[in-house]
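ugh finaly. both done.
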Amino acid sequence: MGLTTMKTYVAVFMIVTGLVLGGCQSLHSKPDNTLYLQLGERDGIANVVEDLLYLIVDDERINHQFKGVDVAQFHRNLTDQLCELSGGPCQYSGREIREAHAAMNITNTQFNALTENLILAMEANQIPTAAQNRLIKQLLPLYPDIRHL
């Protein structure tokens, strides 16, 4: 076997080894749950959702949209959804977002009001601003399904 052939085999071996080890490393690495931790894990998220519910009740811009809602189920589902979106171990098992908001005809003003209340609830629970922004960023892709654009 010539020197050039040997160098080629060594190069291929190094590339394959790198790919295998890199793949194994990504299979065993933990998912990023830093946002989940910054939100106070499931209990912290549940506290934010509870405070959000009180803010919704007091907000005349949006409270009519929540009339007749099963508050306990809403609390559980939203807590699970935020937990999952933030990298936590929870699984959201509620209805699809588009289906849940189909008949609500939510306006931009109402969407913004809910977002404002979510931020206020996070601030009341001392969630760092960077974590608030990261959670909002996770929620932004849901906007078209909520507004039915």
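ok and the 2nd:
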Amino acid sequence: MNKIRTGDLKLVQELNRSIILNVIREHGPISRSEIAKRYEISATTVASAIQELIKGGFVCEMGEGVSNGGRKPIMVKLASDRLYLIGVSISNSSIDIAQMDLEANISRKQTRPIQSLIGDELIAVILSEIEAFLLHCPSSEKCLGISITTPGLVDRDSGILYYNSKLRLEKINFKEIVESRFNIKTWVENDLNATVLAEKKFGPYGKIQNMIYVSISDGVGAGIFFHDILLRGASGGAGELGHIVVDRNGIRCECGSSGCLENYISWSAIYSRIIASTTRGRQTAIMELADHDISRVTPDIFRRAVEMDDPLALDLTDEISEFLGLGLVNLIHLFNPEILIIGGQIGSNNTRLIENVKKYVSVHALPILRDLKVCHSTLGENTNLLAAASIILEEVFHFSLAN
């Protein structure tokens, strides 16, 4: 008879704890006996695992349940507020930091505009912002870790951001830098990979195995689930939708190529067109909403103008819809998703954009691939921070995305 090696036994124990923690997270309050019965795990294993989880601060007891003939069982539940995590969301325009519990509820957050910060100066500011935020957090012993999401090519295993053209960042070992500075375990992930994971974790799409999330903001990118696997690519470069070429002789891109999609549909591209149109004297509600100050025009103002049926806002939306539709049809042909979610500063709650994309797909995608749902993001204004939380919570809970 083969003996169980020590390493194998430890792995089995960790898997059992993970399974039991997930059961408590999804079905708690629940008794130890119910966990053992429902999932055919021995009572001894359940009791031992829960003891470890209580000791670690993940689970707590909460009184007696209903008796089925014997003693009333002691119920256990997730100790959501006993531990916390730090989510750091870096975009091309801001740094957002939040303290969250085990269910990604935000207790405190702060935002710092990036403005013109790039390169080493930006890294220094990020570290400074994290340091200042941690001063007002509970003991670091109660912190599960720091999760950093950022646009660009990210190797999740090493925690290295290999490349971000807009922020002038290259080969930045965020994991090593942050862990050595704060002595807290750190995860680093591409922002769109994290966002599509958050849609699976916190949205209504947990059972969807083929799903693509597309963000249109300062940049353009995609997070892709293919047969329930999050596609990252060999160098963390999967989903760089913004750099597919839609016009070989088009606008020169920061990446060094020409005619990249994001140069036609990102916020900076839209903003430039707004400036050009208003300079030529075109009247628009966009300027009225911004108190006639072009520097105060934001993506939110642009979306509000679309909702008001402002002619310029509608024209620009229709224009970017054509380019976006082209890029999305390419994704549909490559990955055949069940759901295509459109989010980001420009995409979120932009009904006209969604409808335009649906029409484009219905005409230009292969007939057999047109049967998919195109919809808005479901996560709301804190999408980026939920995305950051999902990276740590996936590690802690090993939640089954196909549940």
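summary for the 2nd one i guess: Residues 279 and 395 are 51 Å apart (CA to CA).
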